[in-house]
């Protein structure tokens, strides 16, 4: 993170990273399905964002441009083989979603981004976001055991 300190004071960079680092890491880990790759990618995303942004917000919603940068930095998306059986854990099922369904599902259901912010972060239309979200939700319902949904309410 020291490279980013050239344009921002170290305290603001540290506060920005502490506030949004966990969310960006979770996004990358769930999207990629690989913890080590996600750690590297999220660190690089922060450095690039800090270099190019004039503001480093630490309140409100997760910055859409930060999430967009992480999404654009992802390697070409490859879906995994369709699950032959049900997944026991949510994070094990996410890689079985198509790329667009996966990104929208993570942003809406895990990070809690609203429809508009999700649309901006993914550069998809609002209608596309809603369609990918619905498709992703239906696929997750197929993959997760019935007890998963019964235990959650």
Any overview of this molecule?
This protein is an all-alpha fold. Residues 1-6 have low confidence and may be disordered. The longest helix has 23 residues, at 10-32. The radius of gyration is 16 Å and the shape is globular. It has two domains: 1-75; 77-153, Winged helix-like DNA-binding domain superfamily/Winged helix DNA-binding domain (Arc Repressor Mutant, subunit A, Orthogonal Bundle). It contains eight helices and no strands.
Key terms:
2 domains; 8 helices; Arc Repressor Mutant, subunit A; mainly alpha; single chain; disordered N terminus; 153 residues
Task: Reconstruct the topology from this structure.
Elements: H1 10-32, H2 35-52, H3 64-73, H4 90-93, H5 99-110, H6 115-122, H7 126-143, H8 146-150
Helix pairs in contact: 1-2, 2-3, 3-6, 5-7, 6-7
Q: In which range does the helix fraction lie?
A: 55-70%
Average pLDDT works out at 87
Low-confidence stretches: 1-6
CATH A-level architecture of the largest domain: Orthogonal Bundle
How far is the first residue's CA from the last residue's CA? 41 Å
* Count of DSSP strands: 0
Output the structural class. mainly alpha
Describe the oligomeric state of these chains in a short phrase. single chain
Q: Strand share of the residues? A: under 5%
Alpha plus pi helix count: 8
- Cα radius of gyration in angstroms: 16 Å
CATH topology title of the largest domain: Arc Repressor Mutant, subunit A
Q: Tell me the overall shape.
A: globular
CATH homologous superfamily identity of the largest domain: Winged helix-like DNA-binding domain superfamily/Winged helix DNA-binding domain
Look at the structure and give the CATH class of the largest domain: Mainly Alpha
- Largest sheet at a glance? none
How many structural units, i.e. domains? Answer: 2
The sequence of SSEs as H and E is HHHHHHHH
């Amino acid at each position: 993170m020291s490279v980013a300190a050239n344009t921002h004071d170290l305290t603001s960079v540290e506060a920005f990273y502490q506030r949004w680092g966990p969310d960006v890491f979770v996004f990358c880990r769930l999207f990629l399905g690989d913890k080590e790759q996600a750690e590297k990618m999220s660190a690089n995303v922060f450095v690039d964002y800090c270099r190019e942004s004039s503001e480093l917000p630490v309140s409100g919603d997760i910055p859409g441009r930060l999430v967009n940068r992480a999404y654009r930095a992802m390697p070409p998306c490859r879906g995994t083989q369709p699950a032959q059986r049900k997944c026991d854990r949510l994070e094990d099922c996410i890689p079985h979603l198509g790329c667009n369904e996966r990104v929208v599902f993570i942003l809406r259901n895990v990070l809690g981004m609203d429809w508009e912010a999700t649309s901006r972060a993914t550069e998809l239309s609002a209608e596309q976001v809603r369609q990918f979200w619905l498709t992703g939700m239906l696929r997750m319902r197929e993959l997760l055991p019935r007890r998963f949904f019964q235990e959650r309410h």
